C-alpha cells in the first residue's frame, strides 16, 4: 500500500508538481520525489501523470466483510407530508435500470404514516418489493429515527446498492447510515453505471464546484451507497401491469429512537415551485437594482410556470430569502430552462446552474462572464426586455 | 460550554485553473485557505461562547502545514488549536476522515457542542459532519441557519430545508453543521493575530487516539476514486443585441421551441 513513482517512466516534466495541492512533490535530478509527510494521497498527481503513468497508488485489497451476501438494489423513498418527492421516482427509474442490468430485484423502502395506498403505487413505478414502515413518529423526517429504520433494513435485507435523493433530507441522514454500517457513500451523483463484470456501482459526481468530475467505486464494502442529484435521472413511468409485493411493518408510538425534537416547520419559499425541483427557473441578480424591481422576475417566473432563483448578491442585499439562492453557497439546480437576469456569472453562481439543459442570459454588459455558458445571450436592458417578455407570454404562450 | 469546531484546509477554489494540455487541475500557486463554510462554524462557536461562556477548540485533520488555518481561527478568537496529523491518515475518504476526527475529538475531554461547516468546497460531499456525529454517538442537526436558543444542556436551531426551515431542539452534547446564512464571520483583530503567531498547536497523531489501525487512511476507506476528469465546458451559444422587440421575439420563440412550458 502506498504511493510510488516509477523512476523509469518519470521524465521530470513537473506536471505533477503543479497538480499537487499540498506541495508534496519536488523534481530532483529530473525525477519526481514525493514527500510522504506532506502527501495526502488525494490522487491528483496520478491523474496529472496520465500520459506517462509514472505515479501509482496501490491499495491493500483485503476485505473484512463477505460481499457475496449482498444482493439487489434498494432505493429510499422520501416523503414530506405524505407526498413522495419527485427525486424518488427518478431513483425508482434509475434503480430499475441498474437492477435489470444486474438481473436483480428492486426494493423500495418508505418510512411514513398512513401511506399504504402510496406504498402499493410504488410497485407500479417499478419496485419488486416495497418495504413500508408505518408509524406516527415517521410522518416527519428526523435523523435518528430515519437512520435507525434504514440501518435495520440494510442489516436485514442486505442490498448490494442503496440509493437516495441528494435532498436536504437525504444528504442529512444517509451519511449517518453509511457511517454506521461502514459503507462507502458517493455524494450527489450525476451519473450511475454498473460495471457488469465486477458487479460494481460506478458513481460519477462533481467536485470543486463542478470543475472536476470523479467516478467513484466501493469494491470491498456493502451496500454501495449513493445520493443522487435531482433532475438528472429519468423518472420511472407508471405501469399498471407491474406486479410486486408490499411488506408493511408497524412501529409502535411508544418506541422512539429520536434525540432531537421538531418544534415547528416553517415554509418561507415565495412560490409554490421549489427551485430544486423546478423545470424552469428565472433568476435575478445584482442588475435588478433593488428589492421592489425583483417583481419583474417573479412575474416572468409566474407566467412561465417556473420558480424564482437569485444570485448571492440579490440575497445578500435582502431582496429575496436565502431559500432562493442558486450557487455554491446556495442550491445547485439543473432545470430544463434557466433564465439568468442581471447576473454577471461569478464562478460560484455558475457552479450552481451550469448543468441546466438550456441557459438564457439577459445582461446589459456584453462582456459578462455568464455569456460564456449561455445557450442564448441577450445583450440588453432587463428593465425593458423582461416586462415585454412577460407580456408576450401572457398574450401568446 | 466546551465547543469544538472542525475545519479543513482547501485550495482557494475560485483560482482553480485547468491545464489545457493535460486537462487536470493546476493547483500551482493556489493559496491554501480555510474552507469558507468553516468560517461560519468558527464565528458561530465564538458567538455561542459570548452568549453562555466556555472555550472554543478548533480541530483540523491534514498535513503539518494545515496548522496555518488553526492559527487563523485562533486569530479570530478561538482558544486552542489541534492538528490531527499522521502518515496513517493519508488517503482517507469521508468515512475514514470521520473516524479519525471523531477519535481525535475523543481525546479533548468533555465536549458539549461540535460545529462543522455544511461541506468543504473541494470535495463538496457534506458527509464528514454527520459521520462524526454518528461515530461520537451524539445527536445532530444539519444545515443550521440560526441558533435560536442555547444553554449548557440544549440548543434550539433552525434547519434549512428546500422550502423553508424546521425549528429543531437538541439536547447536548450534540453536533450541528452550519450554512452561510447563519452569520457574517468577523475579521481577525491585530491582537488576535499576535496571539495566533505564538500559539502552541497541539498535535494529535494516530498513536494518541483509541483507533483500529485497519480503519485509517486509504486502507480504511470504503470508496476509491476510479478516475477523474474535467467536464465538458458549456460553450456560449448565440449572443444577440438590438431592439427590445427583436430580443423579446427571439427569447419567446426560443422558449416555445424548447417545449418546456406546461
* Strand order within the widest beta sheet of chain B: 11-10-9-12-8-1-6-7-13
Q: Provide the CATH superfamily of the largest domain in chain A.
A: HUPs
Radius of gyration of chain A: 24 Å
Largest sheet of chain A: 7 strands, parallel
Give the name of the CATH superfamily of chain B: HUPs
Across the major sheet of chain A, the strand order is: 11-15-10-5-8-9-16
Q: Which spans of chain A have pLDDT < 50 for at least 5 consecutive residues?
A: none
Residues in helices of chain A, as a percent range: 10-25%
Give a quick set of tags describing it.
heterodimer, A: 397 residues, alpha/beta, Alpha-Beta Plaits, Rossmann fold, 3 domains, 7-stranded parallel sheet, 5-stranded parallel sheet, globular, B: 262 residues, 9-stranded mixed sheet, two-stranded antiparallel ribbon, 7 helices
Account of the protein in words:
The complex is a heterodimer of chains A (about 400) and B (about 260). Chain A has about 400 residues and is α/β, with parallel strands linked by helices. Chain A folds into 3 domains: about 1-60, Alpha-Beta Plaits, CATH 3.30.70; about 65-250, Rossmann fold (3-Layer(aba) Sandwich); about 280-395, 3-Layer(aba) Sandwich (Rossmann fold), CATH 3.40.50.1220. Chain A has helices at about 15-20, 45-50, 85-100, 115-125, 145-155, 170-180, 295-305, 310-315, 345-355, 380-395, and strands spanning about 1-5, 25-30, 30-35, 55-60, 75, 80, 85, 105-110, 130-135, 160-165, 185-190, 190-195, 200-205, 210-215, 225-230, 245-250, 260-265, 280-285, 305-310, 335-340, 360-365, 375-380. In chain A, the strands form 6 sheets. A 7-stranded parallel β-sheet of chain A has the order 11-15-10-5-8-9-16, sandwiched between helices. In chain A, strands 19-18-20-21-22 form a 5-stranded parallel β-sheet. In chain A, strands 12-13-14 form a 3-stranded antiparallel β-sheet. Chain B has about 260 residues and is of the alpha/beta class. Chain B has a single domain, classed as Rossmann fold. Helix content of chain B is about 30%, strand content about 30%. Chain B has helices spanning about 35-50, 65-75, 95-105, 130-135, 190-200, 215-220, 245-260; strands at about 1-5, 10, 15-20, 25, 30-35, 55-60, 80-85, 115, 140-150, 155-160, 165-170, 175-180, 200-205, 225-230, 240. At the A-B interface, helix 1, helix 2, helix 5, helix 6 and strand 11 of A face strand 4, helix 3, helix 4, strand 9 and strand 10 of B.
Amino acid at each position: 500500500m502506498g504511493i510510488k513513482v516509477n523512476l523509469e517512466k518519470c521524465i521530470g516534466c513537473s506536471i505533477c508538481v503543479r497538480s499537487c495541492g499540498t506541495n508534496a512533490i519536488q523534481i530532483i535530478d529530473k525525477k519526481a520525489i514525493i514527500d510522504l509527510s506532506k502527501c495526502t494521497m488525494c490522487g491528483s498527481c496520478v491523474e496529472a501523470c496520465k500520459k506517462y503513468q509514472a505515479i501509482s497508488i496501490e491499495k491493500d485489497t483485503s476485505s473484512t466483510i463477505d460481499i457475496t451476501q449482498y444482493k439487489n438494489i434498494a432505493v429510499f423513498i422520501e416523503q414530506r407530508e405524505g407526498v413522495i418527492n419527485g427525486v424518488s421516482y427518478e431513483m425508482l427509474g434509475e434503480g430499475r435500470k441498474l437492477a435489470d442490468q444486474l438481473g436483480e430485484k428492486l426494493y423500495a423502502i418508505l418510512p411514513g404514516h398512513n401511506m399504504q395506498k402510496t406504498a402499493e403505487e410504488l410497485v407500479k413505478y417499478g419496485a419488486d418489493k416495497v418495504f413500508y414502515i408505518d408509524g406516527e413518529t415517521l410522518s416527519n423526517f428526523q435523523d435518528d429515527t430515519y437512520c435507525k429504520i434504514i440501518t435495520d433494513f440494510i442489516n436485514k435485507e442486505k442490498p448490494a446498492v442503496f440509493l437516495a435523493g441528494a435532498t436536504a433530507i437525504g444528504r442529512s441522514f444517509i451519511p449517518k447510515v453509511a457511517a454506521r454500517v461502514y459503507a462507502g457513500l458517493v455524494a450527489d451523483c450525476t451519473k450511475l453505471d454498473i460495471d457488469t463484470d465486477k458487479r460494481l456501482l460506478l458513481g460519477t459526481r462533481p467536485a470543486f464546484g463542478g470543475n472536476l468530475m470523479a467516478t467513484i467505486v466501493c469494491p470491498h464494502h456493502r451496500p454501495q451507497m449513493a445520493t443522487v442529484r435531482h433532475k438528472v435521472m429519468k423518472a420511472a413511468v407508471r405501469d399498471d401491469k407491474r406486479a410486486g409485493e408490499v411488506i408493511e411493518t408497524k412501529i409502535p408510538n411508544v418506541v422512539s429512537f429520536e434525540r432531537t425534537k421538531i418544534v415547528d416547520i416553517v415554509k418561507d419559499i415565495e412560490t409554490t415551485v421549489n427551485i430544486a425541483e423546478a423545470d424552469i427557473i428565472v433568476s435575478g441578480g445584482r442588475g435588478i437594482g433593488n428589492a421592489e424591481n425583483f417583481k419583474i422576475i417573479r412575474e416572468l417566473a409566474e407566467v412561465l410556470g417556473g420558480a424564482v432563483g437569485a444570485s448571492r448578491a440579490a440575497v445578500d442585499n435582502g431582496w429575496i430569502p436565502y431559500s432562493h439562492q442558486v450557487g455554491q453557497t446556495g442550491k445547485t439546480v439543473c432545470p430544463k430552462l434557466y433564465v439568468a437576469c442581471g447576473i454577471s456569472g461569478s464562478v460560484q453562481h455558475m457552479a450552481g446552474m451550469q448543468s441546466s439543459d438550456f441557459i438564457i442570459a439577459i445582461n446589459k454588459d456584453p462582456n459578462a462572464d455568464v455569456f460564456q455558458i449561455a445557450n442564448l445571450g441577450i445583450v440588453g436592458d432587463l428593465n425593458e426586455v423582461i416586462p415585454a417578455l412577460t407580456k408576450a407570454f401572457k398574450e401568446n404562450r | 460550554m466546551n465547543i469544538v469546531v472542525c475545519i479543513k484546509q482547501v485550495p482557494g477554489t475560485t483560482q482553480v485553473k485547468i491545464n489545457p494540455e493535460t486537462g487536470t487541475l493546476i493547483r500551482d500557486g493556489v493559496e491554501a485557505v480555510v474552507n469558507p463554510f468553516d468560517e461560519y462554524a468558527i464565528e458561530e462557536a465564538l458567538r455561542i461562547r459570548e452568549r453562555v461562556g466556555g472555550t472554543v477548540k478548533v480541530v483540523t485533520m491534514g498535513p503539518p502545514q494545515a496548522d496555518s488555518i488553526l492559527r487563523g481561527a485562533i486569530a479570530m478568537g478561538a482558544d486552542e488549536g489541534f492538528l490531527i496529523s499522521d502518515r496513517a491518515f493519508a488517503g482517507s475518504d469521508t468515512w475514514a476522515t470521520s473516524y479519525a476526527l471523531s477519535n481525535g475529538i475523543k481525546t479533548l475531554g468533555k465536549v458539549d457542542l461540535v460545529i462543522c461547516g455544511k461541506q468543504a468546497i473541494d470535495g463538496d460531499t457534506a458527509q464528514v459532519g454527520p459521520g462524526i456525529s454518528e461515530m461520537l454517538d451524539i445527536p445532530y442537526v444539519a444545515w443550521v441557519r440560526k441558533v435560536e436558543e442555547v444553554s449548557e444542556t440544549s440548543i434550539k436551531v433552525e434547519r434549512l430545508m428546500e422550502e423553508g426551515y424546521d425549528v429543531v431542539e437538541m439536547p447536548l452534547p450534540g453536533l450541528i453543521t452550519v450554512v452561510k446564512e447563519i452569520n457574517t464571520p468577523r475579521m481577525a483583530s491585530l491582537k488576535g493575530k499576535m496571539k495566533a503567531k505564538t500559539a502552541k498547536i497541539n498535535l494529535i497523531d494516530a498513536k494518541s487516539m483509541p483507533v483500529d489501525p485497519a480503519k485509517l487512511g486509504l486502507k480504511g476507506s470504503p470508496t476509491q476514486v476510479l478516475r477523474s476528469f474535467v467536464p465538458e465546458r458549456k460553450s456560449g451559444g448565440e449572443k444577440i443585441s438590438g431592439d427590445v422587440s427583436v430580443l423579446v421575439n427571439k427569447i419567446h420563440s426560443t422558449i416555445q421551441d424548447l417545449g418546456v412550458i406546461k
